[in-house]
Design brief:
single chain, alpha+beta, Arc Repressor Mutant, subunit A, globular
Length: 126
């Protein structure tokens, strides 16, 4: 192999590399937020078309769905800061996603709304 054809491997920061090695060594699962799929691409594209807030809230909802292993769940405010969202952004995002036909929301006074993620027919018009 000539000098000009060297393969360059991206460098991983020391802290991240040490954390990965430690987790592998201990057999622990990561505490990082995750999305459990499959998530339909058309769902994400429709959420993005609604607004950036709707997409962020949609990803947050898919995260909660993965945690609960259900398509219907309570959309609590507990993990919103991890997604850099506040409750008002959640309210706006839920309305936009519901208007787009991506979710169904059952609102309850003074309680977290119950959300159902829909995969079926979606409203593609805006």
């Amino acid at each position: 192999m000539s000098k000009g054809n060297k393969l360059k491997v991206p460098q991983v920061s020391g802290d991240l590399l040490n954390a990965i090695k430690k987790e592998k060594k201990l057999g622990k699962k990561s505490n990082c937020p995750f999305l459990k799929g499959p998530i339909p691409i058309h769902w994400l594209a429709s959420a993005k078309k609604a607004s950036p807030t709707a997409l962020s809230v949609g990803l947050y909802l898919w995260h909660l769905s993965g945690l609960t292993k259900k398509k219907t769940f309570k959309a609590t405010n507990r993990t919103l800061p991890m997604w850099r969202l506040d409750r008002y952004a959640k309210y706006r995002g839920l309305k936009e996603l519901e208007k787009s036909g991506l979710i169904k929301v059952k609102r309850q006074n003074k309680n977290s709304p119950e959300v159902t993620i829909l995969n079926g027919n979606i409203n593609t018009s805006k």
